[in-house]
Design a protein that fits this description.
Helix content of chain C: 40-55%
Oligomer: heterotrimer
Mean pLDDT of chain B: 84
Strand content of chain C: 5-15%
Structural class of chain B: mainly alpha
CATH architecture of chain B: Orthogonal Bundle
Structural class of chain C: alpha/beta
Chains: A mainly alpha, B mainly alpha, C alpha/beta
Order of helices and strands of chain C: HEHEHEHHEEEEEHHEHHHEHEEHHEHHHH
CATH topology of the largest domain in chain C: D-Maltodextrin-Binding Protein, domain 2
CATH superfamily of the largest domain in chain C: Periplasmic binding protein-like II
Largest interface: A-B, 107 and 107 residues
CATH superfamily of chain B: MetI-like
Radius of gyration of chain B: 25 Å
Number of domains of chain C: 2
Helix content of chain B: over 70%
CATH architecture of the largest domain in chain C: 3-Layer(aba) Sandwich
Low-confidence stretches of chain B: 1-27
Largest sheet of chain C: 5 strands, mixed
Mean pLDDT of chain C: 87
Shape of chain C: globular
Chain lengths: ~270, ~325, ~400
């Protein structure tokens, strides 16, 4: 036993090397964010004299944008779960005639390039006064999370034993009651997965942030980063500090909700 | 969405047969169905508004002269296929089409090859395997634009860490013009996109590998199928359905990519990284010629839908198998 | 029929959205108002100075003024959005090459309605604000670009500022050492790249109506050859003007093309000694033609006649002799009236070299009007093709001209 473990060590080393290469950009992001005296010149490989001036600048410029992103992301999670959960249940359990068309529409919806949606929404939002508007962004951002959430939840809800629901129905509960009191509690884990991903999708959204706002009043943090890097970069520290701050949700979720993340990656692909 | 109807009859047949087996509760059957539809109605409305409407509107716009003037006057005259003619006739079109093709194919091959190599590697048992695998997901979870920012800095010709390292190693004298030379920029952008796609590929392929029953390998090894042979005759055939899904999804996702290119190069230099998606963005949101932008978007949709149908077919076959 | 249900559904979701925000979109007041709105893209500290001028002008005509400062990149999108929702401000600031395009959409009103004629303003300034014979926008102060050089580096090398293209080329080459390039300019694939190419193109007799000419090719050849011989960084194709400035302040470029709006930034580097000179022409005798920069003030067609007439008065005040001096000073601009510019130039040597340039400066939209953006795109496209070595300058211009 002990010898076989020792024999496996080279693989662990190799794995760590792979990972170090893959995560180097993340390291570089953190490293640069702590070197605010460098200007547009070189960073060193290690922040020997770490400075948090980059973070101070980033928070000064971007704290409002981080808050905007947070509000939009939470709103989008709530909206997509409210819409997706009942639909997923219906798609999994009800025998309705047109259900397979809805499913196909969902699969196709996932394939439609965001720029297509943005192009049409811009003119519609323009007429409706939804540009530069948080609810407008929430509605648009839900377009990435709703199809995903429906597919994930449907896969799980399909595996709920019918007897559980039948029992409640026999006791006289309506479909809605059965859904709220039985299905939702049982599906808790998959709802968390769908919610986490909905949050990440919206948090990272760039295309709607870029196209459905016209500057100033509502600026998600992704757009804040883009504004930093599309003009000149005199000092990379605040840019990287903002990138680090914008990556916190992803890192936190990976640590606290690791199992849901892997489940989501699989669920999204192989329905 | 016209072709959905052609798929529907076959796909819905299990549902029809299942319904026949249901106990006939004549009373309230109609009401029952209404209640059931209420569950799904919000989603249907949402899909119609945020997927159906954009496709229809985009198609209409592509036949209109929709410009800055339209915003003030509200008038967008019909121009037939003029937008398509302009877009396809411009010398930029062939460039963007080729770039889109190279970007997609290059990204997919890179992601897949590295992805399957790592997936096979992680199938081995060794300490920290699980931890390393989940940390590998980090690049996939970061906001794309944050990743673009750090890559833009790392690829900087004069001060970026990649060129600095290459210079220390004496592999290049003046530094590689990663994002400044039209012959290199597309390669650099593809590299970054491969980096982004590896975690997703590894995760899916790894789980596909885990689903292959261990007995197959045991039986195979009795017949002398080990190493390359076991991959060729056991792993690959069993993994094929998952591979198809990964590849097709990869293509469709890569066609959509906008964040990385806008973040790294903005489509330049000399349009060497301009793809259909970034071109549609530029036409609509920089030049404010929404009609032309819509025409390019529609060409992009057609290509995406083509792959979507391949995906649906592959997916159905994967389920059938 | 399907369309109407979609419309209803969208309306419903909008109602929801509006309820969620508490309906934040403002509505324009009716009748003669005591308050006017102004929209510009200035950022602090300039925005503060302009706010003071707006307030003072408002006071003098008996109204209060509320100003909004929009980020520069988002201004046109914002104006379009306001055009269609009929929420345009009473006074709108525009970057001068955008005036004709916005005027052609019908969103602006002629300034002659308010008795503003632009008498005494430099001809380039008037041409920039004129669409189909009517003056729609007036810039109180303008700028252009020039050659900035690091006096310490040039002195050490025994070089005086170049007066011809040949000198520019040899000087740039002589000043290139180690990490320091001799020359820097912006060749980016945006209008900024076009803007910096214009002095070379125009001074040599090139024209935006047709860029496929030997004169323009010669100008492009000059810049291309400097990139190719290494006296200019290959990164210029990705540099905006602010990147060019960074190279200059970091000592990585001995000379650069840039504008007077960078004076305040340069002032933050007390150890950096610099001066400006006109951008050289091919021959020392060539009359320099530089592009005119600056922002115009306009009165949008809001439909509210009383407000529009007050807005006209406000524009007249913002562009009056006294205010144009203040506005010019904060941004390193030159007053638009030739007589006033001469007074300011006499007391400020840094402005002086720009004052002469502005007198002959040419408006980008002077020839093509609303067709300028398309021509500008062609110019930077050709520039990128040539600078990156994809095509020869002549072939690049030909391809770009033919779309």
């Amino acid at each position: 036993m002990k010898t076989s473990r020792i024999r496996q060590i080279p693989n662990t080393v190799l794995g760590i090397v792979f990972l170090a290469i893959m995560l180097f950009p993340v390291y570089w992001m953190i490293n640069t964010s702590l070197q605010s005296n460098g200007g547009a010149v070189n960073s060193t490989f290690f922040p020997y004299n770490p400075s948090f001036a980059g973070y101070a600048q980033a928070l000064h410029d971007q704290s409002g944008n981080l808050l905007t992103s947070l509000i939009v992301s939470l709103g989008s999670v709530v909206l997509s779960l409210i819409i997706a959960a009942p639909a997923a249940y219906a798609l999994a359990k009800f025998k309705l005639r047109w259900i397979s068309i809805v499913l196909i529409a969902l699969l196709i919806a996932q394939m439609i390039p965001g720029i297509v949606i943005a192009n049409a929404l811009y003119t519609a939002y323009n007429n409706l006064g939804l540009l530069n508007n948080i609810p407008g962004l929430i509605l648009a951002d839900a377009s990435t999370s709703i199809p995903f959430a429906i597919l994930i939840l449907r896969a799980f809800m399909g595996s709920i034993p019918p007897s559980l629901i039948e029992a409640a129905r026999v006791d006289g509960a309506s479909h809605f009651r059965a859904f709220v009191s039985i299905v939702i509690p049982i599906s808790r884990n998959s709802i968390i997965t769908a919610g986490l991903f909905g949050f990440l999708f919206t948090w990272s959204d760039f295309i709607f942030a870029l196209t459905l706002t016209t500057g100033g009043s509502v600026t998600p943090v992704t757009l804040g980063i883009y504004t930093y890097i599309s003009s000149s970069v005199q000092n990379w520290a605040p840019v990287m500090a903002t990138a680090v701050l914008s990556s916190i949700p992803a890192i936190v979720l990976l640590i606290v909700a690791q199992k849901y993340i892997a489940a989501g990656a699989l669920g999204g692909a192989v329905k | 969405m016209t072709s959905a109807t052609t798929v529907a009859p076959t796909a819905s047949s299990p549902a029809v047969t299942a319904r026949r087996g249901e106990s006939p509760r004549r009373r309230g059957r109609g009401g029952e169905r209404v209640v059931q539809w209420l569950f799904i109605a919000p989603a249907v409305v949402y899909i119609a508004l945020f997927f159906g409407y954009p496709i229809v509107q985009n198609t209409l716009m592509s036949f209109q002269d929709y410009t800055t003037k339209t915003f003030f006057t509200g008038e967008a005259p019909w121009v037939g296929f003029a937008n398509y003619a302009t877009v396809i006739g411009s010398s930029l079109f062939s460039t963007t089409l080729i770039n889109t093709g190279l970007f997609t194919v290059g990204s997919i091959i890179g992601q897949f090859v590295v992805g399957i190599a790592l997936a096979l590697f992680f199938r081995k048992k060794f300490p920290l395997n699980g931890v390393l695998r989940s940390l590998l997901l980090v690049p996939w979870l970061l906001p794309l634009i944050a990743s673009s920012a750090v890559w833009k800095w790392m690829l900087d010709q004069d001060s970026g860490v990649i060129n600095q390292s290459l210079q220390v190693l004496h592999l290049t004298a003046k530094g590689v013009p990663w994002l400044n030379d039209p012959n290199v920029a597309l390669i650099a952008v593809i590299m970054v996109n491969i980096w982004l796609g590896i975690p997703f590929n590894v995760t899916i392929l790894y789980s596909g590998l885990q689903d292959i029953p261990q007995e197959l390998y045991e039986a195979g090894s009795l017949d002398g199928a080990t190493g390359w042979k076991s991959f060729r005759y056991i792993t690959w055939p069993n993994l094929r359905p998952v591979v198809s899904v990964v590849l097709v999804l990869g293509v469709v996702y890569t066609l959509k990519v906008l964040d990385i290119i806008l973040g790294l190069t903005g489509g330049g230099p000399a349009n060497s990284t301009e793809t259909l998606a970034t071109n549609a963005y530029h036409l609509s949101f920089v030049d404010f010629t929404f009609g032309a932008g819509a025409a390019v978007s529609n060409i992009l949709i057609i290509i995406s839908l083509l792959f979507s149908f391949i995906y649906l077919r592959v997916n159905r076959r994967a389920v059938d198998e | 029929m399907r369309k109407s249900t979609i419309a209803v559904a969208i309306a419903a979701s909008v109602a929801l959205a509006a309820a969620m925000t508490g309906c934040s979109s403002g509505s324009s007041s009716s009748g003669a108002a005591k308050a006017l709105t102004v929209e510009d893209y200035y950022s602090q500290p300039n925005a503060g100075t302009f706010d003071k001028i707006y307030q003072a002008c408002g006071k003098s005509i008996g109204v209060t003024v509320k100003s909004t400062h929009v980020p520069g990149a988002g201004l046109i999108a914002k104006v379009l959005q306001q055009s269609s929702s009929k929420t345009l401000p009473d006074v709108l600031m525009l970057d001068n090459p955008d005036v004709q395009q916005i005027a052609s959409s019908g969103a602006l009103s002629p300034l002659s309605n308010y008795g503003i004629t632009g008498k005494g303003f430099a001809p380039g300034v008037l041409s920039a604000g004129t669409y189909k014979g009517d003056l729609y926008g007036l810039a109180p102060a303008v700028n252009s670009i020039a050659l900035f050089y690091n006096t310490d580096i040039l002195k050490a090398a025994g070089i005086t500022p170049p007066k011809t293209w040949a000198e520019l080329k040899t000087d740039a080459s002589a000043l290139t050492k180690g990490k320091q390039y001799g020359f820097a300019f912006s060749g980016i694939n945006t209008y900024e790249g076009t803007w910096q190419f214009l002095p070379f193109m125009w001074t040599n007799g090139g024209d935006e109506k047709n860029i496929d000419t030997p004169q323009t090719a010669e100008a492009l050849q000059l810049l291309t050859s400097m990139v190719q011989d290494g006296s200019t960084s290959k990164s210029v194709v990705n540099w905006a003007q602010s990147d060019v400035l960074n190279q200059f302040t970091a000592g990585k470029a001995a000379m650069m093309i840039n504008g007077p709006w960078q004076f305040p930034v340069l002032a933050k580097f007390p150890n950096l000694h610099w001066a400006t000179a006109p951008i050289p022409g091919k021959n020392a005798t060539d009359v320099p033609v530089a592009p005119l920069g600056g922002e115009t003030f306009n009165v949008p067609n809001t439909g509210n006649k009383a407000n529009m007439s007050l807005a006209g008065k406000l524009v007249a005040c913002i562009t009056n002799d006294k205010n144009m001096v203040t506005e010019a000073k904060i941004g390193g601009y030159v007053p638009s009236k030739i007589s006033i510019a001469a007074q300011v130039a006499a007391s400020d040597p840094q402005i002086a070299s720009f004052a002469t340039i502005v007198k002959t400066a040419r408006a980008r939209t002077g020839e093509l009007g609303a067709g300028w953006p398309a021509a500008a795109t062609k110019i930077y496209t050709a520039e990128q093709l040539a600078l990156t070595g994809k095509l020869s300058p002549a072939a690049a211009l030909k391809q770009a001209q033919n779309g």
